[in-house]
Amino acid sequence: MSAALLVIDPQNDFCEGGRLAVAGGAGIIPLINRLAARFDRVIVTQDWHTPDQISFASNHPGTAPFTEIEVAYGRQMLWPDHCLQSTPGADFHPDAAPTVDKAMAVIRKGYNPAVDSYSGFFENDHRTPTGLSGLLRELGVTRVFLCGLAFDYCVRFTAEDAVREGFEAVVITDASRAIAPQTETAAQDSFRALGVAEIAAASLLS
What letter does residue 54 receive in the DSSP assignment? Predict the structure, then answer.
C-alpha cells in the first residue's frame, strides 16, 4: 500500500512514427499495462509543450537537434519539436488506454516555454515543482516504481528526483526504453551512485 507506479510519458511522439521516437517504445506498452494492473496507485506523466519551448532546436536558428546549448538554468539538450499541446503527438499511445484509465493523476510537464522538464517531480531548473511529491506524500507512498519513455532522460531524472525527495526508487528496466546507448549507460551509472534499484518486470508479475 506504500508503493506507486509512475508511468513516464507513454505518448505517441515517443513511439514509432512519432517526432521523437524511441526504438521499441510502443512495444513496452503491453507490459506496462500488465504492471499497472498490479498497482493500486498509478500516476502517469505527460510532456505538454508549447511551440516556443526553449528545448526545441527549431527555436534556435543555426542549431540542430541533439546538440546542447547554455540557458539560464544550465545545459539544455535541443530536441525536435514534439508533444505539442493538444496535438496527436502529445496524446497517450492508444495501446496505453488501460494504464491511463486506471491512473489516479496525470502530471503534465514542460508546459513552461522557458524551462524544459524531464523529471516528473521538477522542471529542469531543479526548483519548480510539479506537485508530484506532495501528491505521493498525501497518499502515504514511500516507494515508487518507474517505467516508460525514455529510460535515459525522463525516467532517469524522475528516478533521481524521487530519491532526492526521500522516496525509494525502483526502475523497471524491461518496461523502459532508452534513446541512445551512451546516455543509457550514464543513467545506469547514476542509478548505482544514488541507490536507485533496477529490476525486471517479472519480479513484480510472478
Answer: T
Q: Are 37 and 74 in contact (CB under 8 A)?
A: no
3-50+84-205 to CATH, choices 3.40.50.300, 3.90.1150.10, 3.40.50.850, 3.40.30.10? 3.40.50.850
116 catalytic residue (yes or no)? no
Catalytic residue among 15, 109, 152, 161: 109
Catalytic residue among 15, 83, 147, 154: 154
Residue 83 annotated in active site: no
Percent with pLDDT over 90 in the chain: 99
Q: Which residue has 533496477 as its cell numbers?
A: 198
Report the DSSP pairing between strands 143-149 and 3-8.
Answer: parallel
Catalytic residue among 9, 47, 81, 116: 9
| pLDDT greater than 90 at residue 206 | no
109 classed as catalytic = yes
**CA separation for the pair 52, 115 (Å, rounded):** 11
Backbone angles phi and psi of 162, in degrees to 5 = -60, -45
pLDDT of 161 over the 90 cut: yes
